[in-house]
């Protein structure tokens, strides 16, 4: 997963915050009239049972990467609902797209740092590379002073192809540790989408998700495994009387 961002875009919003949505969408299962798949339809809060349908690893019964990194479905649902409310994300396409993205990257919410390549500073449930994680950490006013301190006293101009020259592995891992707690890590995908992407992108069905994963935001490959995870999330979160996307048939 590679996202080509610099630290400039986030500094203007560090102390401004992002307004909360205020309330959650009504229960979509009760007010959808029935019909074909509609990614732009506003849905209610995610439940632990829905999380288990697209991330069965979140039982944490046999955590692949240790109990300290695995997050149970009850906590996943609550933290995702908080993040979606904070960034004003209400639709089926937005919630299914971002939840499936985090579920894929974190192996069903069972990992919080990269274990396959052991890249210094790579982590969160979205498995941000460090240049993205750095900006994410700076976006929290309460973490900003610590990030600056760990950066040598100044905010660095962090780019995807230069960050390894600016920070030691120890520094990157220390900054990463700041955003691994549940109250931060689950905000990673909603934050990225809300600050770097067209917020209507994921309301355009599978083509919108492909664009989000590709040149529209993430710059990652969209393969059959990612597609399957998206379809699982859509099926779990959609109203019962809504059809499935043609791409999931």
Describe this structure in words.
The model is unreliable at 4-29 (pLDDT under 50). The longest helix has 14 residues, at 73-86. The protein contains 13 helices and no strands. The protein is globular. The chain has helices at residues 8-11, 28-31, 48-54, 73-86, 92-105, 130-138, 144-150, 163-166, 169-178, 182-185, 188-196, 205-213, 224-237. It is mainly α and 249 residues long. The chain starts with 7 loop residues before the first helix and ends in a 12-residue tail after the last helix.
Largest sheet: none
Termini separation:
27 Å
Mean pLDDT, as a whole number?
89
Report the sheet-strand fraction: under 5%
Keywords:
mainly alpha; 13 helices; globular; 249 residues
Can I get a quick summary?
The chain is mainly alpha-helical. The chain contains 13 helices and no strands. α5 crosses α13.
């Amino acid at each position: 997963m590679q996202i080509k961002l610099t630290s400039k875009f986030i500094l203007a919003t560090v102390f401004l915050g992002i307004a909360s949505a205020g309330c959650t969408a009504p229960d979509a299962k009760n007010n959808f009239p029935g019909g074909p798949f509609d990614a732009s339809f506003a849905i209610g809060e995610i439940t632990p049972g829905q999380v288990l349908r697209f991330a069965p690893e979140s039982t944490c019964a046999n955590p692949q990467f240790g109990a300290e990194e695995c997050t149970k479905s009850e906590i996943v649902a609550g933290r995702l609902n908080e993040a979606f409310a904070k960034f004003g994300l209400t639709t089926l396409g937005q919630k299914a797209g971002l939840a499936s993205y985090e579920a894929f990257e974190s192996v069903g919410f069972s990992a919080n740092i990269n274990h396959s390549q052991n890249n210094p500073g790579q982590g969160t449930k979205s498995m941000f590379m460090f240049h993205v994680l750095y900006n994410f950490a700076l976006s929290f006013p309460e973490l900003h002073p610590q990030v600056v301190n760990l950066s040598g006293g100044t905010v660095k101009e962090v780019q995807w192809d230069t960050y390894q020259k600016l920070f030691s592995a120890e520094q990157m891992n220390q900054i990463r540790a700041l955003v691994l707690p549940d109250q931060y890590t689950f905000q990673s995908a909603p934050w990225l989408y809300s600050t770097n992407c067209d917020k209507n992108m994921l309301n355009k069905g599978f083509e919108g998700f492909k664009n989000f994963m590709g040149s529209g935001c993430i710059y990652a490959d969209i393969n059959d495994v990612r597609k399957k995870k998206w379809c699982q999330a859509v099926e779990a979160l959609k109203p019962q009387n809504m059809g499935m996307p043609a791409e999931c048939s």
